[in-house]
Amino acid sequence: MGFSLQHPWAFAFGLLGNVISFMTFLAPIPTFYRIYKSKSTEGFQSVPYVVALFSAMLWIFYALIKSNEILLITINVAGCVIETVYVVMYFVYADKKAKWFTAKIFLGLNVGFFGAIMLFTLLLFKGDKRIVTLGWICVGFSVSVFVAPLSIIKRVIQTRSVEYMPFNLSLSLTLSAVVWFLYGLLIKDKYVALPNVLGFTFGVVQMVLYVFYMNKTPVITDGKDAGKMATATADDHVLVNIAKLSPALPERSSEVHPVMREMGLPARSCAAEVARAAAANRDAVDVLVSRHSPAVGVA
């Protein structure tokens, strides 16, 4: 039905869905180019890519079982190839702990669990019952793909930084959800339509958060850095240098350093010396912190 010209609108939305979804799959390329250049996965996580690969594999299986769903097969085959490249790159540049975590998820989900689903549906169900069972399984794990970025949303709220949540990716996810929802309605396939309601919701939430936090100054949430801020106090006041966060650097580049210590100045320097130290750091934001002030928050 998805490829039949007797349903031109369904074919049109399916084709548009292929284009938008393909662009969505390519959206993380800047992230992985950054990983390649830095030879480190930095603060990025592998979970969304492993889950997305599993979802694409599952939809291919569903489309093959249902038959005549060429448009679902084409985009998910492309998704499998692209997500596999992402997972391999992540595994190459991740540290030992992250590699082990990624390997466990991949083997457990994409190999073990996918194999179990195939055996379960092929051996225990036939005909329409097999399609219905597999359809609801696809719905469940399509939802998990949209829920996976919740960890990124949490990080954005905690750090007040949108560095790990590109706007173009959120926009692509939202548009893709709308198009595939309409495609599912037109071919009367609720298993395709239903998950994209949640996909649209999460996409809108991510875009709203991006707009809200895009001009905010990131805060430091790492415990060690927070400890440095608490202990780097003088008898009365401490001048704290908060380095500007470069968009090309990870969030840990926003470290806190006492300016007077870096400049080799005594703890009790006069106002003129402090002024000269501030002028020498043109790319710094100097904040006067009282000894009895609460922990520094960057607005």
Automatic annotation (TrEMBL):
Q: Which GO terms describe its cellular component?
A: plasma membrane
Work out whether the entry's keyword set contains Transmembrane helix.
Answer: yes
What keywords sit in the KW lines? Cell membrane, Membrane, Repeat, Sugar transport, Transmembrane, Transmembrane helix, Transport
Does this UniProt record's set of keywords contain ATP-binding? no
Q: Which residues cross the membrane?
A: 12-35, 47-65, 71-93, 105-125, 131-153, 165-186, 192-213
The UniProt entry lists membrane topology as: Multi-pass membrane protein
Localization, per the record, is: Cell membrane
Q: State the InterPro entries in the record.
A: SWEET, SWEET_rpt
Q: Which Pfam families match?
A: MtN3_slv
Role according to the record: Mediates both low-affinity uptake and efflux of sugar across the membrane.
Name the family the entry cites: Belongs to the SWEET sugar transporter family.
Known partners and oligomeric status:
Forms homooligomers and/or heterooligomers.
What is the name listed in the Swiss-Prot or TrEMBL entry for this protein?
A: Bidirectional sugar transporter SWEET
Query: From what organism does this protein derive?
Result: Urochloa decumbens
